[in-house]
Design goal:
The chain is mainly alpha-helical. The protein contains 8 helices and no strands. The protein starts with a helix and ends in an 11-residue tail after the last helix.
Length: 206
């Protein structure tokens, strides 16, 4: 006579327990962590797409500049080496959860930005490059890509900031501890100053 009522209570308790768990997870920010984590991954993917676009432009730029016999070889060499270093780092989605690997990646991209800036500045000294339509077209493509990199990086920075605030704030920081949600690394101020200034060159100079 007692078993039947107990069985009924258990059946009623199961959905109620599931509902309570769902409400507790929502209240502690679990769903927000999932949403912001996906936003961060998406923003990071776009950063990588733009970096790859830049890397793909460099061989054509180097090839065009090589046509200038007297061009500074050291400048070209540094661009080639910086590109090789930047593209040698495997930029997997997991990289954004590894501060050390993330810092190495952004440092390599910063070095490539610096090398490209130097190349474009030096190119101002060569009238034949200024008159080379192919080089001008590549320069425009590179500047456009650098601008897209800046936009993509800013979106990534914002998405990481939102995620990290959630991971550090109470009571959602307790959820972060339970599920091992670590604070994500972000671009540093020093790197931002180096990498977000698009290389420029004025071909209107005589």
């Amino acid at each position: 006579m007692i078993a039947a009522p107990l069985s009924s209570l258990r059946r009623l308790a199961a959905p109620a327990g599931a509902a309570a768990l769902a409400l507790s997870l929502t209240g502690c920010g679990y769903n927000d962590f999932q949403r912001l984590d996906e936003q961060t991954k998406s923003a990071w993917s776009e950063v990588l797409n733009q970096y790859q676009r830049r890397a793909d432009l460099i061989p054509n730029i180097v090839s065009t500049v090589k046509g200038e016999a007297a061009f500074e070889q050291d400048t070209l060499t540094k661009v080639v080496e910086a590109r090789a270093k930047a593209t040698s780092i495997q930029a997997t989605p997991e990289l954004i959860n590894n501060p050390e690997a993330f810092n190495k990646f952004q440092q390599a991209q910063g070095e490539l930005s610096g090398a490209l800036s130097r190349l474009l500045v030096v190119s101002e000294n060569y009238p034949s490059l200024k008159a080379n339509q192919g080089f001008q077209d590549l320069r425009v493509q590179l500047e456009g890509t650098e601008n897209r990199i800046t936009v993509a990086r800013n979106r990534y920075i914002k998405s990481v900031q939102d995620y990290n605030v959630l991971a550090r704030s109470f009571p959602t920081n307790l959820t972060a501890m339970v599920f091992s949600y670590q604070v994500k690394p972000n671009f540093t101020v020093q790197n931002e100053a180096q990498i977000t200034v698009p290389p420029t060159v004025d071909f209107t100079k005589k």
